[in-house]
Structures are given as structure tokens and as C-alpha cells.
Amino acid sequence: MPQNHQIAVEFRDVTFSRNHRPLVSHLNFSIFQGEALVLLGRSGSGKTTTMKLINRLLTPTEGEVLFDGVPTTQWDEIKLRRKIGYVIQEIGLFPHFTVERNVGLVPALEGWKPKQIKMRVYELLRLVGLEPEQFAGRYPNELSGGQRQRVGVARALAADPPVLLMDEPFGALDPITRLEIQQEFRRLQQELGKTVVFVTHDIQEAFVLASRIGLMYGGELVVLGTKDEFMRSLHPESLAFLQCLRSLQDNL
Ligand SMILES: Nc1ncnc2c1ncn2[C@@H]1O[C@H](COP(=O)(O)OP(=O)(O)O)[C@@H](O)[C@H]1O
Ligand SMILES: [Mg+2]
After folding, report:
1. Which fold is adopted by the domain 1-83+162-226?
2. pLDDT tens by residue, 123-166
3. β-strands 7-18, 62-67 pairing
4. Which residues surround ligand 2, an ion (CB under 5 A)?
5. Cα 50 to ligand 2 centre (Å)
6. Atom 4 of ligand 1, nearest CA residue
7. Is the pLDDT of residue 168 over 50?
8. How many CB atoms lie within 10 A of CB 70?
9. What residues flank ligand 1, with Cβ below 6 Å?
10. Average pLDDT score, the chain
């Protein structure tokens, strides 16, 4: 599909090893601007490692990762991270900061004026479905899990980074809240035109969010394509994931 789209991130024959053992091997793929690429795979398949190679929490042992056409190793680390929002499940918000201060963190670091920060924070809270008057002054422990993840998304969006990395951000939520936030996030992503790389082991979640699915298995990207292409894939690992979906439906 997006042959003629601009490339946001490109993996060129990337291998990352620890103690001479490759955790991911020979990754070759591009992420296009504005797409939602879901990296799907069972636990330990190399999804988080792949993600960390994008924002340079890790650097390739072999090959290179290009961000906006420039290898991550040549980027100024701070500048690179400012272009990439990061949402994860656990290490989240600062517990001793209010919601307002958590969301306004990066703009404050970038030297925005207090008034501007406040306007931006309120705008973002509304965007993720939290009424600012009600939530801006609360602390993270005064929020439900779903509300905390919304704040996490708002914080990642605060300085308007073109790319968002999301590593199983909704994993800990109850299934109803989870579906709600998935659907809202999909809408938000399309509306804002962000490039999103989303990691999950949940095929149902992959189908809600993805414009393309990349399937990881044993540190390799074994399938990459649209949902239709994924459905037609005959790779044993895609068949195993599709079987999970079917057995769910069969039990209804
Ligand atoms: N710091 C590390 N040192 C050594 N091995 C690691 C390290 N981090 C992850 N691994 C291993 O690398 C593989 C891929 O891990 P990871 O990318 O976290 O997988 P996923 O996110 O798909 O669950 C796993 O086998 C994991 O045990
Ligand atoms: Mg992981």
C-alpha cells in the first residue's frame, strides 16, 4: 500500500545482540508517515527491543535505524527523543506531580510560558476525554487505570511529536475500558495524522488499531502487511494468532 508515502523510520538490516545472542535479527522495514504500525508477537519475540531501537534507548549491533533519513546514532539524543512520544504501561506518571504538571512536563522543559502550557494541557486533557476542571489538579493515585493511561497518552502528545511509540500501553486495563480506549485512540491517531508504532501481544487489539501489522517471531519480522494480507498469511505464527481469534469466537 503506502509505496508513495514518506518514510518516517527505516530499519536497514538491523541486528541487536546481547552477549553474542541476537535479540532481534536482520530487521528490514519502513514505517510510513501517518500510519499505525502494530508490532504483534508473543512475549519475548523482540517487540520492545525493536521499539527501543527507534528512540535510541538501544543502538544496532549491525545495520542502522534511520529517523527522518538520518541514522539514530547521528542524532542528538535529546532532539531525537523530543520528536518521539513514548507511552508504556508501568513507568508512567510522576506520582508526586499533578495531572497538569505531568502532562505539561515536556513543554515546560522546552521553556514554554506557563499560560501556554496550561492551555495546551487543558486542550490535551479534553482530547483524551478527561474534563480538565475535574482532573488537572489530581494526583496519579487519584485516577483509575484507564484515566492514568489517558493521561499518559496526553503527556506523550504534549509537545506534538510526529511519532508515537506505544509499548502495550493498555495491557493492564479491564476489557471494556480497554476496547473503549483502543477505539478512541484509533480515532485520535487518524485525526491527528500521527505516525504510531504500537506493540502488543493481543491480536484483537492489533486488529482494532493497525493500518499494518508486523508479526514478530523469534526476533525476526516474519510477516508485514495490511490486515487483509495478514489474514491471508500462511506463516505458522500468523495461523497460530488467527486461531486464537477464531477459538474466542467459537466459544461464544
Ligand atoms: N537487557 C537484556 N539482556 C538480555 N536479554 C534481554 C534483555 N532484554 C530482553 N532480553 C531478551 O530478548 C528477547 C526479546 O525481548 P523483548 O524485546 O523484550 O520481547 P517482547 O517485547 O516481544 O516481549 C527475550 O528473549 C528477552 O528475554
Ligand atoms: Mg515487551
Report:
1. Rossmann fold (3.40.50)
2. 999 988 899 999 999 999 999 888 998 899 899 888 889 999 99
3. antiparallel
4. 48
5. 9
6. 18
7. yes
8. 12
9. 18, 23, 41, 43-49
10. 92
